[in-house]
Design brief:
The protein is α/β, with parallel strands linked by helices. The protein has 2 domains: 197 residues, Rossmann fold, CATH 3.40.50.150; 50 residues. 37% of the residues lie in helices and 19% in strands. The protein is built from 7 helices and 8 strands; from the N terminus they run H-E-H-E-H-E-E-H-E-H-E-H-H-E-E. The chain has an 8-stranded mixed sheet with strand order 3-2-1-4-5-8-6-7, with helices on both faces. Helix 4 links the parallel strand 4 and strand 5. Helix 1 runs parallel beside helix 2, helix 4 runs parallel beside helix 5 and helix 6 runs antiparallel to helix 7. The protein is globular.
Length: 252
């Protein structure tokens, strides 16, 4: 199956690389954030890799990455697409590695898929070395579409308190969004698929450009640079809604 033909889910994952909608670009931005935060040559466990694009980004930063997923199809795709070899079929709640094994762990958009978030975060702490870094993200329940495979969605307080409870601290980051951005992407995904020659239709094209200008204008008013609108930013008192919440912790 050619994932590049459209951002279609396979099981519950897809490859966002190359797409311009803000959700896909925010997926990629989370891994760029991890690439900047992690030290080269330090061992890293990437949990629930999906299509593997994120693990590949980390590998390209000279990080020795062990990639794990519960879905055999995801592992097979990553092996075929990127030539990955250090692939493990594993459940994040029962990680088949000894204590204090990894210098860092990444886990993006996974905690909402399990009932026992406390057990998941605790298990990651077990395999993380002292001084190691763990980055985790999840969708803010207030702005989620509530898909059926999200079994426990978090509000900001519950999500951040989970890390403070286990690690004693948490650095707070997030990805913002605007309603204009959401409407623009819905426009692309739904109306764009309905009409033939979507990209050639001037009326639709102008309407989509107008929506994008509204997105940029909203970010400027909130003192966020337009080129940062997809990026991971410090969680501050912004007027913009927080769509994705990220916690960064270091094991003491």
């Amino acid at each position: 199956m050619n994932i590049k033909s459209s951002p279609v889910k396979i099981a519950e994952w897809y490859n966002p690389v190359g797409y311009t909608d803000y959700i896909s670009r925010q997926y990629v931005a989370r891994y760029r954030f991890a690439c900047e935060l992690m030290e080269p040559s330090k061992s890293l466990l990437d949990i629930a890799i999906g299509s593997g694009y994120g693990s590949q980004m980390l590998i390209e930063q000279d990080l020795p990455v062990t990639s794990c997923d519960l879905d055999f199809q995801a592992l097979a795709f990553s092996r075929q697409r990127y030539g990955m070899t250090d692939l493990i079929n594993a459940d994040g709640l029962i990680i088949s590695f000894p204590d204090n094994c990894f210098d860092s762990v990444t886990m993006f958009e996974i905690i909402q898929h399990v009932h026992d978030g406390l057990g998941l975060v605790s298990e990651i702490k077990r395999v993380l070395r002292s001084g190691g870094t763990f980055i985790c993200s999840t969708t803010n329940v207030q702005f989620s579409a509530h898909p059926p495979y999200h079994v426990h969605e978090y509000d900001p307080g519950e999500f951040l308190e989970l890390f403070e409870w286990i690690y004693g601290h948490v650095e707070r980051y997030c990805q913002y969004f605007t309603w204009a951005g959401r409407l623009s992407d819905l426009f692309q995904w739904n109306i764009g698929k309905t009409f033939d020659g979507f990209k050639k239709n001037r009326v639709i094209g102008y309407a989509n450009r107008l929506a994008r200008l509204l997105v940029d204008s909203t970010f400027r008013k909130n003192q966020i640079k337009v080129d940062e609108k997809y990026q991971v930013l410090p969680w501050e008192a912004q007027k913009l809604p927080v769509r994705i919440m990220l916690g960064v912790v270091r094991k003491i």
